[in-house]
Amino acid sequence: MAENFDAKAAVANAKGSALKANANMAKARASAKANMAQQKANVMLGEIKKATG
User: Fold this and answer.
1) Of the candidates 21, 41, 43, which has an alpha carbon nearest to the alpha carbon of residue 33?
2) DSSP characters for the chain?
3) What's the total number of domains in the chain?
4) Alpha carbon of 43 to those of 9, 35, 40, 49, 52: distances in Å?
5) In whole angstroms, what is the distance from residue 45 CA to residue 42 CA?
6) Model pTM?
């Protein structure tokens, strides 16, 4: 009986780790997109400053 419980615990742990990894990947992806958007905005601002300066 204890072995069965250990197996269930191992599966639960594996699922938890996978979910955490997925969440971290999603966060990293969102962060990368935000960084790209920020860079594009900075470039556009630079172009505007050049054009108006």
Assistant:
1) 41
2) -HHHHHHHHHHHHHHHHHHHHHHHHHHHHHHHHHHHHHHHHHHHHHHHHHHH-
3) 1
4) 51, 12, 5, 10, 14
5) 5
6) 0.61
User: Which tokens is 50 given?
Assistant: 């050049």
In terms of residue numbers, what domain contains 35? 1-52
In degrees, rounded to 5, the angle at the alpha carbon of residue 39 between the alpha carbons of residues 24 and 46 is 170
On the question of pLDDT at 1 being above 90, the answer is: no
Q: Distance between CA atoms of 53 and 49, rounded to whole angstroms?
A: 5
Compute the mean pLDDT over every residue in the chain, rounded to the nearest whole number.
Answer: 92
C-alpha span between 17 and 25 (Å, rounded): 12
